[in-house]
Amino acid sequence: MTSSAAQAAPKLTTEQSVDALIKTIRIPPRPSLLADVQVELADDDPDPRRLTAIIANDVAMSASLLKLANSSFFGLRLKAKSVEHAVSLLGITQCGNLMTGIIARQSIQVEKVSLVKFWDFSTKRAQAMTQLARRMRVCPGDLAHTFGLFCDIGIPLLLERFPDYAETLELAYKEANESFTAVEERRHATSHAAIGSLMARTWGLPENVSMAILLHHDYGVLNDPGTEESVKSLIALALLAEYGIQKYHGQEFSCEWEKGGEAACEFLGLSADDVEDRFEELHELFNHSQ
């Protein structure tokens, strides 16, 4: 064996073992209902009637959509009385976003682990990112919403796979120097970012969402001219949204904000006063959504 081949062998072995490990992690297949919704939304001229028919075929999904549509978050002047009425009031894109979130929540369950807090935080992040994206005009609101829902989707999948992953999360959240994903990789040879990105591709989410999921703890990419602007926008907005949520719940210090907050603000063109203004707006949003 040549020296170069000898040097390459351990790397190849490592890659093979990581591939083998990933195959042991259960990534739910894309539900057919989501595929149908995505096909309709991708049409050049999406038809509200066809989307209504797709949703109305599933009684549980219809009930969940109506409950969300009539929640205080949307503050609709009229209450949606049917799926057709909800699609009419909210619009086809917003209904598609809501359906994606409902389907994800129902598809991903972990035995003996409650995901209520996980989904509550993911929903808040999606709402916050949608508002920030519209306010700052850095990316489409529906893209921000999708990323907000899915950026940590690898976490429940790893909770299901590794008995000690909850302990890993605690260590990663408190780690001041190493990246979040480096802590995960050291303990499990993979990370929620890598697994979440793989699931996003499996579920047919946009490529820039999948890439942003993969990179969302790598704040160096915010200064990388080779990284797509939409990917950097999603990463920066998510960091801002998450810190806003944490502050809303009384948590003033965040290791992730310390690591990436300055780069995020520089990328988004936000001064310290601007950041405080955005946080105030997010807190109003959350108060309104209670």
Automatic annotation (TrEMBL):
Residue ranges of every copy of the HDOD domain listed in the record: 27-219
Pfam families this protein is in?
HDOD
Return the InterPro entries for the record.
Answer: HDOD, RNase_Y/CdgJ
Q: Which Gene3D superfamilies match?
A: Hypothetical protein af1432 (1.10.3210.10)
Q: Which residues cross the membrane?
A: none
Q: What is this protein called?
A: HDOD domain-containing protein
Q: Which organism is it from?
A: Undibacterium hunanense
Taxon lineage = Bacteria, Pseudomonadati, Pseudomonadota, Betaproteobacteria, Burkholderiales
